[in-house]
Design brief:
The protein is an alpha/beta fold. The protein is built from 13 helices and twelve strands. Strands 4-11-10-9-8-7-6-5 form an eight-stranded parallel β-sheet. Helix 4 runs parallel beside helix 13 and helix 12 packs across helix 13. The longest helix has 32 residues. The radius of gyration is 19 Å and the shape is globular. The structure holds ligand FNR. The site of ligand FNR has 22 residues, from loops.
Length: 359
């Protein structure tokens, strides 16, 4: 690329040409026919904005809080695995950029940097830890205790992956200098992928049920967020089980194909939850207007996955910072043009389906 990227698509184009093909494929792909993956982006394009005019927008405040902690704008970093494929500093670079930007980062269980080094690289940055509830309970407990000790403020428990989606069925053969450094037992499995069972390759315990929430409650005082809830039925169960938040997500279109786009599911979840816990959304967010639409439909904040990986591959920490800044500025502009000086001015009727205007 001859000049600096100016939008998220530019970062993606750079990553596509810069990254080794296998890494690009691992990061960019969705499962099977890519229907849900593509829809996660296209569904935003089907929504239309209804701006209000003549409302003083000379000063725009994007700040908010998630689970009581302040963030400068409502765009956070979703957990994504093996970030050191994109840049040698991987998750450490992401954590530093997220802190500098005033955002929140979720560190994946499948990170290539340790829970401790990420925490120590950005001690004041807001960080949540992502949990896969693996078959080995001691592994689970040990990661929870390490995250608590290092000051991570919440656990994001992914529940849409009792098995791996098709994209990652071929295990990613990690370069020898990298590993799933926080879960030693899993590395043993992956070093022998040809003899491992499907369950071992997934790592996640497919026997998990809602009882797991109770187990988590007894294991930690940290707030628990469920990632991957896609129906009102499960959202109500999540509330009944006392979760602190729901992250509406289709895992970047990498798990069950043909599920609806997260932004399409969001209103159903918001209605079912009825303000009993915070609700966030991720998937397909590439523009500031996407962020605006998600907030208008009820999300407290959004999370981004691949754009961070594209930023990392561009310039490490600086690249992730630029990605967050670009989305933040696009969101600020969207707010201003929509007549919203603060997040509380964003309202449900500002977003409608395009069918309202087409005959
Ligand atoms: C992910 N995602 C993910 N989710 C999760 O709960 N645990 C994980 O370890 C990972 N790892 C992961 C790796 C890669 C390469 C990708 C692309 C995604 C899903 C991620 O948290 C998030 O839900 C999506 O990436 C959001 O969609 P976008 O922003 O990528 O469109």
């Amino acid at each position: 690329m001859s000049s600096d990227p100016v939008c998220i698509d530019d970062f993606e184009q750079h990553a596509k040409t810069f990254l080794p093909k296998t890494y690009w494929k691992y990061y960019s792909s969705g499962s099977y026919a890519h229907i849900s993956f593509e829809e996660s982006k296209n569904a935003f394009k089907r929504l239309r904005l209804r701006p209000r005019v003549l409302r003083d927008v000379s000063s725009i405040d994007m700040s908010t809080s998630i689970l009581g902690d302040k963030i400068d704008f409502p765009i956070c970093v979703a957990p994504t695995a093996v970030q050191k494929l994109a840049h040698p500093n991987g998750e450490i670079a992401t954590a530093k950029a997220s802190y500098r930007a005033g955002s929140c980062m979720v560190l994946s269980t499948w990170a290539t940097s340790t829970i401790e080094e990420v925490a120590q690289s950005s001690p004041k940055g807001l960080k949540w830890f992502h949990m896969y509830m693996l078959t080995n309970e001691n592994d689970n407990l040990s990661r929870i205790h390490r995250a608590e000790k290092e000051g991570y403020k919440a656990l994001v428990v992914t529940v849409d992956a009792p098995y791996r989606g098709s994209t990652t069925k071929d295990p990613l053969y990690m370069p020898p200098h990298l590993s799933y450094i926080n879960v030693e037992s899993y590395n043993c499995v992956l070093n022998n992928p040809d003899t491992a069972t499907e369950e071992e390759l997934t790592g996640v315990n497919p026997k998990n049920t809602w009882d797991m929430i109770q187990w988590l409650r007894s294991a930690t005082k940290l707030p628990v967020i469920l990632k991957g809830v896609l129906t009102a039925e499960d959202a109500r169960l999540a509330v009944q089980h006392g979760v602190d938040g729901i992250l509406v997500s289709i895992h970047g279109g990498r798990q069950l194909d043909t599920v609806p786009a997260p932004i399409e599911v969001l209103p159903e979840i918001i209605a079912a939850v009825n303000n009993k816990c915070e609700v966030y959304v991720d998937g397909g967010i590439r523009y500031g207007t996407d962020v605006f639409k998600a907030l208008a439909l009820g999300a407290r904040a959004v999370f981004i996955g691949r754009p961070v990986l594209w930023g990392l591959s561009y310039q490490g920490e600086e690249g992730v910072y630029k990605v967050l800044q670009i989305l933040k500025e696009e969101f600020r502009l969207a707010m201003g043009l929509m007549g919203c000086a603060s997040l509380k001015d964003i309202s449900r009727e500002m977003v409608v389906h395009q069918s309202r205007y087409s005959r």
